[in-house]
Amino acid sequence: MNILVCAAKTGGHLFPALSFCKDAIRRGHKVIFLGSKNQLEQKIIHQAQLDGVQLDYLQIGIDGFRGTNLMQKIMFVIRLPFLIMKICWWLGKHKISFAIGFGGFIMIPLGFAIFLMRKKIYLHEQNAVMGSANRMMSRFAEKIFTSFPKSSYPKQIVSGNPVQLNLDQGVEQSFDPENIKIFVVGGSQGSYFLNTFIPPAINSLKKNFQILHQCGFKKKDEVSKYKSHLNVQIEEFVNMIDAITWADLVICRCGAGTLAELSMNQKPMIMIPLPNAIDNHQFMNARFYEDAHQGILCSEPTDKEVLASDYEEFRNAIEKMLSTNSRGEMMIKRISQSKPPIDHFNAIAIMVDSIKENFQEY
User: Fold this and answer.
1) Predicted local confidence at residue 169, as pLDDT
2) pLDDT at residue 113 above 70?
């Protein structure tokens, strides 16, 4: 079978899509990947190809709609029919059996093309709040796979998020309650807030920590100074498997993929959502895992005059993580032994079973 997989621009869309691609290729199918001309996306896809993922890569030039100015919106509407026709031609040329989309505004022309060509399309939504493009195209979808159970969309199947990072659970990690290991991660692009606010906030706790801080490309100078008594390593990029394996506690933003990987690998989290994320989806992602007792949700201060050393909500979260119950068990340790609320490692299998209802040969 020839399958069109579509995702664009962000790692949150692209990495689950690549997980699906790898499984489809392993099953003997041909995968055509439809993306945009975004630089980060091109880098991720080309690296996957270098790593042996055999897929054809098609691209269309497309930007988002929300958050753009009036002229950009007008240009999108003008170009939309031409993009739809181009995708229709590709669907016929490559004899596509079905398509599956993982989000991003590239889903708009694909959805219309699928409808015109009378093909089937499946959608995957990574976040607790469905993105605009997926929401618009849901009427054309055969099934909608979601990563959170609190959604209530027609055609929904709760599959989980196809995360790739699976640590060796057989390896017993050392744990020293007097020297907690903290991993601060702001993603490949880094987080200005985490880089500037978290070091002085940790300094104000006056405790001994080991800290690995991933700051993002060319952003080491942005990181505020940690106190000299702390054992600190600051890196632009890290090996995520090594970093998460090493950590006792992770301080992070709240992208769906990051939280899913940390959840499945039973890592306690202090989750600080990006306050201007579209539809407040990062907050909703984090709230689900907090309700599941896998981490603590902290808000980013709205008052930019607040000093990092006065970031009381964060300090309280750290203190709570280090607190012990009546049996002397530290909260960090209890979370590390808890069962994840969703089995994200089984996501691909659930998606495949559903697709086979229409395509037995898959």
Assistant:
1) 54
2) yes
Residue numbers of the domain that contains 111: 2-160+344-355
d(CA 261, CA 128): 15
Question: Do 83 and 203 fall within a single domain?
Answer: no
pLDDT interval class at 31 (50, 70, 90): very high
If we measure between CA atoms, which residue out of 234, 258, 22 comes closest to residue 5?
A: 22
Asked if 215 and 283 sit in the same domain, the reply is: yes
* 33 DSSP β-pair partners: 5, 57
Contact between 129 and 280 (Cβ < 8 Å): yes
Which residue shows structure tokens 């500037």?
196
Same domain (yes/no): 351, 225: no
* pLDDT above 60 for 15: yes
Token digits of residue 223? 């990181």
Residues 14 and 80 occupy one common structural domain: yes
Q: At a CB cut-off of 8 Å and minimum separation 6, what does 109 contact? A: 60, 62, 80, 83, 84, 86, 87
Tokens of 23: 């499984």
* Angle subtended at Cα 74 by Cα 70 and Cα 78, rounded to the nearest 5 degrees: 170
DSSP states along 15-68: HHHHHHHHHHHHTT-EEEEEE---HHHHHHHHHHHHTT--EEEEE-----STT-
Q: Answer yes or no: is pLDDT of 305 > 70.
A: no
The pTM of the full predicted model, rounded to 2 decimals, is 0.88
pLDDT tens figures, 306-346: 666 667 888 899 999 988 877 777 888 888 888 899 999 99
Contact status, residue 188 vs residue 217, Cβ threshold 8 Å? yes
CATH number at residue 68: 3.40.50.2000
Residues paired with 123 in a beta bridge: 101, 144
Residue 61 domain-assigned? Answer: yes
Residues 223-242 pLDDT 10s: 999 988 889 999 988 888 88
